[in-house]
Design a protein that fits this description.
With 209 residues, this protein is of the alpha+beta class. The chain has four helices and eleven strands, in the order E-E-E-H-E-H-E-E-E-E-H-E-E-E-H. A hairpin with a 2-residue loop joins strand 5 and strand 6. The N and C termini lie far apart (39 Å). The relative contact order is 0.23. The model is unreliable at 1-6 (pLDDT under 50).
Length: 209
Amino acid sequence: MKETKKTDYHQSFILYKPYGYLSQFVNNGQKQNSKKLLGSFYNFPKNSMSIGRLDEKSEGLLLITTDGKLSNHINSSGIEKEYYAQVDGIITDTAIQKLRNGIAIGIEGEIYHTKTCKVRKLQETPILPERGKKIRDERHGPTSWVAIILQEGKFRQVRKMTAAAGFPTLRLVRVRVGNLTLDTMTPGTVREINPQWIQNTQNHNELPL
């Protein structure tokens, strides 16, 4: 009798990560008791991991999975990641072009030149949930919003890019990974992804809905 090969069952999720949380389940740092971790949102399965990260002060779409191969595929395949960044000042066309062309930032003590990317100024303030910690108001100077679409993901890359262009980021929200978006989700909510998505994304350089 021919033995049937057993396949592992994996689960994947979208989390709307709020401001002030680490993109991890365990914190081995010195201040671990004061840090907010992902496990407080949902009873994620054992061996869950985040696919890429959002820093503690950033918000938005974070993918969670139990499938290490899927995580490696998404991190290495150039899938688009779109961010909305509120920056200090009214960003100029010159600064936007610098961001599009690639800009020098510091990564682990070395100079890294970012890849070309898509950048546009948002003409209206995006409709987003209020952040847990208030952004400074317009009395301290004007702000503006840009959309930045990357196919890479260095540590704190968007923040470093806008700062290097002369417009530091005040608020950062990831709104899309591939074709997956936040839709009507609110901070702290979780949505499980259809298992078929896993097969599709492993065969294509995108994330089908």
